[in-house]
Write a sequence for this structure.
DNA sequence: AGGTGGGCTATCC
DNA sequence: AGGATAGCCCACC
């Protein structure tokens, strides 16, 4: 498919759905500095494609958008995500490539809320002794090839990339 | 201009 | 299986 076409539609979706109140002045600079390549709206669009009971990584979201080195910015976009964003963004389905839920540092409860949200939809989260939370990517991972999903298009779930493969 | 730190990662021990 | 270490790219001192 034409990546350019997908990009156009992506920005359309952005205008339509991007209702996040961006009151932090740094965000605007953030987006413009990226040359509108990786925007919050695109991140949210892709995250919305993650099927229920599946997870993917920050880095893979970045790859699907076409900016493989922007994993940390995906994290930023999710960090600034407003809870009232419509349609909802299943932010909890994005974890580290290791399968770990990022802790966000001591004194924060984000990781625990993420664990609860994952468990609420039937994803098993293993908690280690140090409090580290991990998800089995072989079982729950969703890592479609870039280009195999219509970024920004009206995602038809049934396409092809629905599940990760074998491997051991 | 240089340092640090982010909801990150791939790669080597 | 964990760490240490580069890279990474931008925001913020």
């Amino acid at each position: 498919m034409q990546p350019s076409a997908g990009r156009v539609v992506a920005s359309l979706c952005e205008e339509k759905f991007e209702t996040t109140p961006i009151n932090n002045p740094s965000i605007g600079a953030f987006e413009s500095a990226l040359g509108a390549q990786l925007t919050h709206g695109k991140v949210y669009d892709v995250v919305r494609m993650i099927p229920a009971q599946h997870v993917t990584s920050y880095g893979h979201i970045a790859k699907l958008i076409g900016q493989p080195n922007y994993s940390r910015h995906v994290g930023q976009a999710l960090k600034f995500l407003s809870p009232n964003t419509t349609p909802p963004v299943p932010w909890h389905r994005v974890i580290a490539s290791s399968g770990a839920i990022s802790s966000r540092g001591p004194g924060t409860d984000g990781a625990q809320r993420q664990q609860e949200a994952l468990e609420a939809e039937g994803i098993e989260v293993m908690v280690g002794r140090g409090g580290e939370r991990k998800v089995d990517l072989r079982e729950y991972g969703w890592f479609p090839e870039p280009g195999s999903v219509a970024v920004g298009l009206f995602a038809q779930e049934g396409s092809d990339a629905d599940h990760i493969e074998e491997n051991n």
In short: Residues 57-59, 62, 69-76, 78-79, 91, 94-98, 101-105, 108, 110-111, 114 of chain A lie near DNA strand B (CB under 10 Å from a C1'). Strands of chain A lie at 56-57, 94-95, 126-127, 133-134. Confidence is low (pLDDT under 50) at residues 1-36, 155-168 of chain A.
